[in-house]
Amino acid sequence: MLEFTQSPHNDRETLFVEVILPLAIAKNYTYRVPYEMNASVMVGKRVVVQFGKSKLYTAIVASIGKLAPEKYEAKYIIEVLDDRPAVTHEQLHFWQWLAEYYMCNVGEVMNAALPSALKLASETKIELNKGFDFDKSALHDKEYLIVEALDIQPELTVSDITKLLGQKTVMPILKGLFEKNIIHISEEVSERYKPRTRTFITLNPVYNNQESLRELFTILEKRAPKQADAVLAYIKLSRHQKSISKTELIEESGAGAASIKSLEEKEIFIAEEKNVSRLFYEDDEIYESFELSEHQQSALFQVKKEFDDKDVALLHGVTSSGKTQIYIRLIEEMISTGRQVLYLLPEIALTTHIIERLRVYFGANIGIYHSRFNDGERVEVWQKVLNNEYKVILGARSSVFLPFNDLGLIIVDEEHETSYKQYDPAPRYNARDAAIFLANMHQGKVLLGSATPSFESYYNARIHKYGFAELTERYGGVKLPEIEVVSISEETKKKTIQSHFTSVLMGDINQAISNKEQVILFQNRRGYAPILMCKICAYTPKCINCDVSLTYHKSSGKLHCHYCGYKEDTPQICPACGSTHLEYKGFGTEKIEDELSILLPDARIARMDLDTTRSRNSLQAILNDLEEKKIDILVGTQMVAKGLDFADVTVIGIINADSLLKFPDYRANERSYQMLSQVSGRAGRRGKQGKVVIQTYDPGHRVIKQVIENDYVDLYLTEMEERRSFRYPPFYRIIKLDIKHKDPEIVQHQSNYLAKELQKQFGERVIGPEPPLINRIRNYYIQSIMLKFEKDSISISKAKAIIRDIITQFQTTKLSKGSIIQPDVDPY
């Protein structure tokens, strides 16, 4: 364990600093501090160091002392980059805990935690910020040289700039150019998050009295009757609503955009652009000033009571029960005490309405942090949290890494979501579990919220480790949607099914469209057809890098691998037998969209999956169109299950529930229930009872019945019996080791060796090795070893230490050559 302390020192002492490098190395490295930098070094500051023969890195000072390393000669640090620490003592402890708990190196945690601009390295790419004008004459000589070089060659590495200037200490110069917004860190590929804006119209206060308004009408009715209609429409709308958008005014008045513009030019109307939510608000004032219902009051009281003696509480509330309003009350109370709040969401882009709703209350006190921000924006949020300028942070899983100094409350919304788990690269952490440790460090509280809690959280609530509160009714008394299960087999026999749509689903879709309502269709597979197969010899094209069949995408006309991105042209003739009889098997969202457009040629159909939301702002555009009723039917993957809240979505269709229920995973029933309940929860959220149609080959399946009856407790009790019998969480802890190698025989030998060494220590707790479901990805063959540890009779930290030692010992042998070993703690 590192000692994050700073030794007192004077100018002539020889100091040594232990630093964290953004690399997957087992130990931190020690550097010598030049005398002139003694006063500058401090724990948490960034320093520039050379590591290896010539590479430069930005490292974080973890500790300061006077002892030189025994085994190697310490190099000097090159530069101190910060005037004050960029990373707090608490963060360093948090990083160390993550590294130990998730069995990775602290450098890997640093790499995940820090925005790219705070960890420049030799190979980091630099380019000019093309959207920013600046005066070159205001630059000093070295800055000018860099800018001139970037004019000639659009992209340079830090190493290139080191050679250009003929000096090692280029990081401070690059830092200065970055802070002036002149350069951009090109390794940051995430698109910039753009808030949606709308123009709102107000009447010039000069016309607030009756006399001046009468005079205005008299003039306009004679000279510009259309403009008079617009003013009349504004007065009519203003009686019922607080703010009036330009679009609403044009629709209400029929006057046209030109008339509104003329009224703006005459300063009769004042136009103002404002950021608005992409999602529906029935009435903005509900959120500006709301009263909690009796059920909400009771749940809030219970949460606060549980917080008296417990640090974590679970709020189990059905979909659309008003959990967010309870969160708002808790946030208000917390920030009134001067403490910070972190509000975690699984998918930031799909919950824009929560961002806007919270901004109504907390204004400039709220900061947002997620992957759609560019690097400059992330650094800005980082600095503001460090300076305590934000009291509330709303963010995705990576926001647990921000430099909080007094975190009083963490809210984990939709705590069951798998999006909270990081799979690649390390640290393979779960933000929900990390949040509990983080809050504990700050003596804060954690509220977990979900309509379908993870079994681990629900188990902890039932054994009274966590507090527990419930919301069993939807807000405003809205009924839960009606659910109808339709047998695909029966309709196929009766020949009433059209393509992949049963007569029941088609009838409900047509009824919704005729009522000017909207439909969401869920199919948990993207692409057009999962498999292309030869009818004669059953040949199926496979990826050249992965052990998976290729998926046909009609939009590109190619076969795609969803694991490594490989693409190839669709064959017209079978390469195995020469037959021309190739056919598509199965269906994805693209095929659903395509066939619906044939069956319902007048319907406006859109698709929301990974393929349609890759480009800049594409997701926001789809949500805008859905809100503005430019879409009748939205077809999507699991993205449609998370956070969508639209007034006119009344029908939900689940095209094939079997793809969820028949998945080979011990969590399949839990995940199926969660997904089906969450998708169903998108229907009928504004007064109208919704309808959900579940299409399946197995209408009698236990989980489907539990979804219909909304019986989470029955699902939990049934599944817990199986979990206990077969040694799965929450009764056991799981650590998975993936061993990877480019040769299948070598990886088999390596994994067998490791399994035997582990069995010597842990016996029957070791399962495997065995190939996973997909046993080759990106040309690496994979073998998995699973270790199951009972919670009561073994120290998990000791078990991890033994596993680390065995892996280290293995890596010292010749057998380990070319292998990659990836530990994953709590893998599912």
Explain what this protein looks like in three dimensions:
The structure is a single chain. With 828 residues, this protein is of the alpha/beta class. It has 7 domains: 15-118, GIY-YIG endonuclease (3-Layer(aba) Sandwich); 125-185; 204-276, no CATH class; 284-470, P-loop containing nucleotide triphosphate hydrolases (Rossmann fold, 3-Layer(aba) Sandwich); 482-525 and 601-721, P-loop containing nucleotide triphosphate hydrolases (Rossmann fold, 3-Layer(aba) Sandwich); 529-586, no CATH class; 732-825, Alpha-Beta Plaits (2-Layer Sandwich), CATH 3.30.70.600. Helices cover 34% and strands 21% of the residues. The strands form 8 sheets. Strands 14-15-13-16-17-12-18 form a 7-stranded parallel sheet, with helices on both faces. α11 (294-306) packs across α12 and α25 packs across α26. The two termini are 28 Å apart. The model is unreliable at 187-195 and 277-287 (pLDDT under 50).
Keywords for this entry:
828 residues, alpha/beta, GIY-YIG endonuclease, 7 domains, 6-stranded parallel β-sheet, 26 helices, 34 strands, 34% helix, globular, DEAD/DEAH_box_helicase_dom, ATP binding
Q: In percent, how helical is the residue content?
A: 25-40%
Return the CATH class of the largest domain: Alpha Beta
**Total domain units:** 7
The residue-averaged pLDDT reads 84
Poorly predicted residue ranges: 187-195, 277-287
CATH topology of the largest domain: Rossmann fold
How much strand content do the residues show?
15-25%
Strand element count: 34
CATH superfamily of the largest domain: P-loop containing nucleotide triphosphate hydrolases
CATH architecture of the largest domain: 3-Layer(aba) Sandwich
- Radius of gyration of CA atoms, rounded to a whole number: 30 Å
Shape, principal axes of CA atoms: globular
Number of helices: 26
State the strand order across the main sheet: 14-15-13-16-17-12-18
The SS-based structural class is alpha/beta
Biggest pleated-sheet summary: 7 strands, parallel
Distance between the termini: 28 Å
